[in-house]
Amino acid sequence: MRVLIVEDEAKMAGLIRHGLEREGMAVDVTGNGEDALWKAEAVDYDAILLDLMLPGIDGLEVCRRLREAGVWSPILMLTARDAVRDRVAGLDRGADDYLTKPFSYAELLARLRALVRRGRPERPAELQVGSLRLDPATRQTWRDGKEIELSAKEFALLEIFMRQPGQILSRFQLLEHAWDYEYENRSNIVDSYVRFLREKIDRPFGIESIETVRGAGYRLREDGGQ
Ligand code: CA
């Protein structure tokens, strides 16, 4: 297991490094964001420990740029206690977990192990299918860079489609993921909302991205309808 520690406080970085090395991990350390970006793109780290307060490019920006560059190593952020806004921003930019300083070493290890178990699947903070883009954190949607206003339910439905482009989704699956039990057995509500969605994300652009698959359900074309 190879871990990258990004921490500008040399003493803290050294302590963590020695601890992880005692567990048999290979550990690289850097104290600045630019170097972290370079290292993390060059090596497939099993985990990255990323302090948010760094000189120059800060941890949030490092996180955002790594995900943008297609680096999916699990990221554990280190933040100051009470910095709720930092933690939210970090998670929304693609970090996987956080630990507030001061932390217990046993917890650091447990969180690292849990992250490594999950592997490195792609998990972009923003979803993109063709010219459709959706940001689950800000709840914004764009087609060709033009923002589209969606209701909460329309947004929820589109998010399900965009997480599984090219897949046929049955009315039941869509209902199960976007509606609660109150709407059980009302599959026509799905048809209504698919219609609303088409009116907003497709029709104004002369596109048909959500296909009706007879007898099976609906499918968002993998190319987003280009
Ligand atoms: Ca720091």
In short:
The protein is an alpha/beta fold.
Count all strands and give the number.
12
Strand content is 15-25%
CATH level-3 fold name of the largest domain: Rossmann fold
- Second-tier CATH architecture of the largest domain: 3-Layer(aba) Sandwich
Helical fraction: 40-55%
Instruction: Specify the biggest β-sheet.
Output: 5 strands, parallel
CATH class of the largest domain: Alpha Beta
Descriptive report:
This protein is an alpha/beta fold and 226 residues long. It has two domains: 2-118, 3-Layer(aba) Sandwich (Rossmann fold), CATH 3.40.50; 127-220, Arc Repressor Mutant, subunit A. The chain is 40% helix and 22% strand. The protein has helices at residues 10-22, 33-42, 59-68, 84-92, 105-118, 152-163, 171-178, 188-202; strands at residues 2-6, 26-30, 47-51, 75-80, 97-101, 127-129, 132-135, 140-143, 146-148, 168-169, 210-213, 217-220. The mean pLDDT is 92. Calcium ion binds at residues 7-9, 51, 53-54. Calcium ion is lined by residues 7-9, 51, 53-54.
